[in-house]
Amino acid sequence: xxxASHQVGLDMEALSGICGFISxxxxxxxxxxxxIENFRRHSADxxxxxxxxxxLAGDVFNILGAVLQGVIPTMTILAVYYTLxxxxxxxxxxxxxxxxxxxxxxxxxxxxxIVDEETEESPLLAHDSTVARPTSRPTAADADGNRxxxxxxxxxxxxxxxxxxxxxxxxxxxSSKPTSDPPSVSANTSTSPFRTFLVNTTALILVCAAxxxxxxxxxxxxxxxxxxxxxxxxxEETEAIRFDLWGQIFGYLCAVLYLGSRVPQLLLNYRRxxxxxxxxxxxxxxxxxxxxxxxxxFAYEPECAKLEREYRTMQCEAGEWSSDYRRYILVNTxxxxxxxxxxxxxxxxxxxxxxxxxxxx
Length: 361
Known about the structure:
The chain is mainly alpha-helical and 361 residues long. It has 14 helices and no strands. α4 (49-69) runs antiparallel to α5 and α11 (280-298) runs antiparallel to α14 (333-355). It is elongated, with a radius of gyration of 33 Å.
């Protein structure tokens, strides 16, 4: 039977499990903030399409590496989920931007209207200062004409300053008293930095709490099933960590693609000098998911150490603990490189959020 102190104690296995479940919870909801942001703005111009495409390719290799390396079924299922979520986000980008992989910002219809629109005040003939005009010696007639033109221009300028709107029979008399403009829609819908921080922090805490609760319920369920079997298990009976060549190759390809996916987004933010349209919560969940995933790997406890702690009998041979730990880290090096490297690049994106915060409309 398991003692009460063992059931509530936080050992390395429990720490690894909690971090793993929090990472899973973050990765489940990671795409939701960006999908909602795109839907709210009816635009996906803030995201780099190349970023999403490379991330999708990395998730595909993640599935192949997870299957070949023989990781736990939960991670394989999550890898498939990531791929489906990538496809949904990519489809949303194609819907709003058209089927293109270019990150160039198209000219909107409003901008085209501003450029092409001709008002009543627009001159019929555009003034072109670059056109050379023949010069000749001024005469008395020219001087008289210049005086008339100057007088006419002064009269026309004075006439333009007169408001004759009330003289029109189709328009009522409007008081010339200046009135305050109504507040704009953007001013009403804009959110303060404190409110954004509060919403993001609350969402992050709730997701992390859900992950920790998932670990607790999973542990209680497994303890209830194992309490009926008190026979000790020898270390030799546990499954050894295996090393699959193709699984490692796909794992490293996945890491390279994950690292390269952030570069197009960083460049797009730099060219635009803005992070408008990019959900901070999207990258916040990605950061916490990568951080807790790295922690769950480093908090690994070899099987012989688990048996020693559970049955209080010597299970680890000389050097077995360190050998198993090094082998486990070596098998998961590609996933460590991908997660830790992506975490550093996401920190650079957070720096862009801070640098370009005044450029967000």
